[in-house]
Amino acid sequence: MHKLAKKSDEIALKYYRKKVKPRVKANLSPVTIADLKCEDYILSRIKSKYPKHSIYSEERGIKDKSSEFKWYIDPIDGTKNFIRKYPFWGTLIALEYQGEVVAGVISMPALNELIFAAKGMGCFYNDKKAKVSRIDLLRDSYLIHGGIDYILKENYKDNFAELAGSCYYSRGFGDCHGHSFIINGRAEIIVDPHVAPYDVAAIKICAEEAGGVFTDINGNNTIFSGSALVTNGKVHDDVLKILNHNIESREIYKIG
Predict the structure, then answer these.
(1) Which domains, and CATH codes, for the chain?
(2) Which pLDDT tens digit goes with each residue over 203-222?
(3) What are phi and psi of 85, to 5 degrees?
């Protein structure tokens, strides 16, 4: 994974230094030649070494070979940042075994940051052990969040405003860069309202091995529901209570 990430970084940085023209995909998200070049390189190496493994990648889709092993690839997480020369983007590579993510790499070359983890082996940030913070009160917590436009479309939008008001500080970073703040103890909570499995597979193993907790917004231990809540673990239950308070009764009222 380190070798794949390092080479992918070289490809991505070559285009990052240039002006790249994106095209819009069917889901209205942008893609650049850098996304495609990086992903094709990573896929070629995985297929060459592990031809029987399944793969789920952002640009080329799912290659299901009914294997116990599945790779998750996001060649450039944060393409919109990449396009505008914001350094907050990275390459995500993760490996799942028998339905559980067991290894992952988050490489953010424009920031010179590399995070990696493996099941039972801990998480490392630039080769130093990464640990989540020990803060256990919301009033002392830093809250990071993904796109506010997505949050405002969710049924928990009012609860999110309450959560933000309950925390010491809040900022919107999103993508792998935002999650890195939880993993290395610089923040306690990230609410990510709009994600795909390849966006968060590497995040999950890195956060858990650093001592944190990964669920979706409803508290389910899954990377497939379309949302992610990552915390230092100590405030996780409090965050879930606020985000999900009265949601069911509101939905019933709307239906009625």
Answers:
(1) 2-129 (3.30.540.10), 138-250 (3.40.190.80)
(2) 999 999 999 999 999 999 99
(3) 65, 25
